[in-house]
Write a structure and sequence with these properties.
- With 302 residues, this protein is of the alpha/beta class.
- It is built from ten helices and 13 strands.
- Strand 2, helix 2 and strand 3 form a beta-alpha-beta unit.
- The protein is globular and about 60 Å long.
- It folds into two domains: 256 residues, Spore Coat Polysaccharide Biosynthesis Protein SpsA, Chain A, CATH 3.90.550; 35 residues.
């Protein structure tokens, strides 16, 4: 398995939690399987942590492009690719991912591969973790048990196998819609999507959005987010964990019987209403503009 990530600058709290995450991966996979993608600052920190480094292609605003990273990984190996955000701590059970992929392909008699995704558990963590401490993992499991599971729209890791990585578009990593549109692509290509939340613990260390000059507004509504939306062709192409085809838990694969309801309610019901009722369409567009203005001025909670 190749583990790929695009860390932010290793400054302050962001630097601490990225060190924690990458150190957890090293404990599980070893340093040779891990590739950090980024600029010279990333190269320096990759060397410091003892992992590999690669240079991806960038957007005109210096945001790494997802297709570039996937293509580099594919050129290195035909193995399973785990792309993860750089603030996610994995523990021992993450090694099940490759086995789950193999098992799923046999169960579904699929030669085209699959995409495994899962929700994250949010915790507050300010200090650097000492993974040589024998109680470290026990303490992390204990802390995670009090954490909060994210909403299904938040997807922080992807496990690709087979044809799931074919012809990826130049999505802007870490910007609005990047993760959600990948699910839509899989649906279009009939690649099975499997929710493995109940089998894999992914610990997300909470952080601010200070790494972007415009904060959360820039992440979700800035130029790169708008480009992701353009590539996707609209908000209807932004899916979530609720849209997974299957749910995997303790060796059992079951169909996600709720996915059709979520898909219809979002894509078709809203689409029909907006097309058949122009006034409603106008009101909806006005609402989005007002929401964007309020968010820009930090009034999104009003």
């Amino acid at each position: 398995m190749i583990i790929a990530a695009t860390p932010k600058k290793f400054d302050g709290h962001i630097g601490v939690i990225q060190d924690n995450a990458i150190s957890s991966w090293i404990q599980i996979f070893g340093s040779k399987s891990i590739y950090l993608f980024g600029n010279e600052e990333t190269a320096i920190n990759a060397k410091r942590l003892g992992v590999n480094y690669k240079i991806p292609e960038y957007s005109n605003t210096d945001v790494p492009l997802f297709n570039s990273i996937i293509n580099i990984c594919r050129d290195m190996s035909n193995d399973v690719i785990l792309y993860t955000n750089s603030d996610i701590i994995f523990l021992e059970n993450v090694t099940d991912m490759a086995n789950i992929n193999f098992e799923l392909n046999n169960i579904m008699h699929s030669s085209i591969g699959s995409l495994l995704i899962g929700s994250r558990t949010n915790i507050d963590l300010e200090e650097k973790i000492n993974f040589s401490d024998p109680d470290c993992r026990k303490n992390l499991f204990s802390t995670a048990s009090t954490g909060k599971l994210s909403a299904p729209e938040w997807i922080d890791y992807f496990v690709f196998s087979g044809q799931a990585t074919d012809d990826m578009p130049p999505l802007r990593i870490g910007r609005g819609g990047f993760d959600n549109y990948i699910l839509y692509l899989m649906k279009k290509r009939r690649i099975p999507i499997v929710d493995i939340t109940k089998s894999i613990l992914a610990i997300h260390q909470n952080h601010s959005y200070s790494h972007h000059p415009e904060g959360k507004q820039g992440i979700w509504y800035g130029e790169d987010a708008r480009e992701n939306l353009r590539i996707a062709g609209g908000y209807h192409a932004y899916l979530s964990l609720d849209d997974a085809d299957y749910i995997y838990n303790s060796g059992i694969l079951i169909k996600n019987r709720h996915r059709l309801r979520y898909f219809l309610s979002r894509k078709y019901l809203k689409g029909i209403l907006l097309i058949r009722y122009p006034l409603l369409s106008c009101l909806y567009k006005t609402y989005r503009k007002i929401k964007s203005i309020f968010t820009h001025h930090g009034l999104q909670d009003l």
